[in-house]
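Posting this for the archive.
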Amino acid sequence: MKKLLFALLGAALMTISCGKQNPDDNDVGGDNLQPASATTVYTGTCSVTTGPSPSNLDGSVVEVTLGDKTLEIKFVKISFVPGKMPAMDIYMKEIPFTKDGDSGKIVFERDDFDPWCLGVEYPNYHVTGLSGSIDGGNIEFALTFGSIPTSFAGAVQK
């Protein structure tokens, strides 16, 4: 009888745990219904002004994931102070955009938010003044990370 009770209890727990859905998943279900998104990789130059003149980080990589109404920009393994700061992935999420129906040009901007790094919001790189565009396989944008003016210009990685 005890074995039957434990088997029924185990089956009930498995049913409950399998029925839960992570609302952050981008699949159908939960409250966060979003279409499948496409990620495009761009290679280019990230310019960072930390002193009297900008530093150009050639070969920088940015991934852009386009959703239905927002996009996400990810700096891939970026170090704004090479040799003094470890390279990290930095995510800027939920950036609203508009798309021109005729040309396909995407224009985006967002102000006053914390990017994500290492799985948490990263207030040390608080973002202000993010604005940019994606047009014909090219991307350009500018922003300020904390007090550091930063820009990126690149093309689709081949």
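The radius of gyration is 21 Å. The chain has one helix and ten strands.
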